[in-house]
Specification:
Blueprint: E1 16-22, E2 27-32, E3 38-44, H1 49-52, H2 54-68, E4 75-84, H3 90-106, E5 111-113, E6 120-124, H4 125-134, E7 139-144, E8 148-153, E9 159-163, H5 175-191, H6 199-207, H7 214-221, H8 226-230, H9 233-241, H10 245-269, E10 277-281, H11 291-300, E11 307-309, H12 315-326
Parallel strand pairs: 1-4, 4-5, 4-6, 7-10, 10-11
Antiparallel strand pairs: 1-2, 2-3, 7-8, 8-9
Helix pairs in contact: 4-12, 5-9, 5-10, 6-9, 9-10, 10-11
Length: 334
């Protein structure tokens, strides 16, 4: 990430932008100058208005901004970039634009608002993840965390997405689906309906259970949701690293699904001879079994010049870069 501005370097005459990343778990706000240097950072609660409602989302965003500017009283904000989970349709963009308008017209934040009309950017979380991850206006982001989705944009401004259908009939290759496949394999092995695997022992040890049947109490009676179940996916990764054939197959299947998503997006946006970057985002890519390497091998068969990278910056930074780009600062490569 870029170096931070020191307190002694803060200049009230500078135009600054806010980069905001709002998800289902937390909201992050960065204060950035015209070069992309960070002066402040704040966090607050979730701001996916589709799940928590518009007033609560607005409160989280306001709190994140207040935290980010607490050491920069009177900072002159010329632009805002906002990327929120759940903003997938034009109607959603209009709703969030109204929310942003309320921030600078009604909210008592310690900010000198110098917003230009063109300096407000509202988009979805995948777009800011791509821009932050690549520091570029084009490329592909393949997100594999609790859920999964691929999103890309090419130099002509055309975009494409694949996946992102949620855990009930999508999210292939995600932490949730890896964990579910592991739990199913463990149950089948325990019953004798499937091949032997190390997975039952991994689950028992991690959850401190006496017998596999205790999983019913943990997952069903305690009301575990998608997030809690997805958190078990690293156990499948560890079992695969220990040589367990069933766990290895589960990860192979996940890697194939993630590669398919990425290839689908890339094929719609880039020609085989084009050079572009694919940024891997989310906890699944921290696999000790090097899923990112497998993705790169698969993609290079179709796109020889592709580069698979880890994120250069966090999504909130991408939101700030989009605001700077809209202000004509030209901070993004093409």
């Amino acid at each position: 990430m870029s170096d931070w501005v020191r307190d002694s370097e803060f200049n009230d005459s500078t135009d600054w932008v806010l980069g905001i990343d709002g998800g289902g778990t937390k909201t992050v706000c960065l204060v950035m100058d015209e070069t992309g240097t960070i002066a402040g950072r704040g966090e607050a609660g979730p701001s996916n208005y589709q799940t928590i409602g518009l007033p609560a989302a607005g409160e989280s965003i306001s709190q994140a901004i207040a935290s980010a500017v607490k050491n920069l009283p009177g900072v002159a904000i010329a632009g805002i970039g906002v990327g929120l989970a759940g903003v997938g349709r034009p109607a959603d963009v209009q709703v969030v634009q109204g929310l942003v308008t309320g921030l600078y017209q009604e909210s008592p934040l310690p900010i000198c608002w110098k917003l230009h009309s063109e300096g407000v950017v509202v988009t979805h979380d995948c777009a800011i993840a791509l821009v932050g991850g690549t520091r570029s206006a084009s490329g592909v982001a393949i997100v594999a965390g609790t859920g999964s989705i691929a999103y890309g944009c090419n130099p002509q401004g055309e975009s494409k997405r694949a996946g992102g259908w949620g855990y009930r009939f999508g999210d292939e290759g995600s932490g949730y689906q890896i964990a579910i496949a592991g739990l199913k394999a463990a149950a089948r092995s325990h019953d004798g309906r499937g091949p032997k695997t190390l997975l039952p022992d991994f689950f028992l040890n991690y959850l401190n259970l006496n017998q596999l049947e205790d999983l019913i109490e943990v997952i069903y009676r305690r009301g575990w949701g998608v997030t809690e179940i997805a958190a078990l996916s690293p156990l499948v990764d560890r079992a695969a690293a220990a040589g367990d054939a069933i766990a290895i197959q589960i990860l192979d299947d996940a890697a194939a699904e993630l590669a398919l998503m990425t290839e689908t997006v890339a094929s719609a946006l880039f020609t085989p001879d084009q050079a572009f970057e694919v940024v891997t985002i989310g906890g699944v890519w921290r696999s000790v079994c090097h899923l990112g390497d497998r993705l790169g091998e698969s993609l290079r068969a179709q796109f020889p010049a592709v580069q698979v990278i880890s994120p250069r910056h966090e999504p909130a930074y991408g939101a700030g870069l989009l605001a700077l780009e809209r202000l004509g600062k030209g901070v993004l490569s093409r």
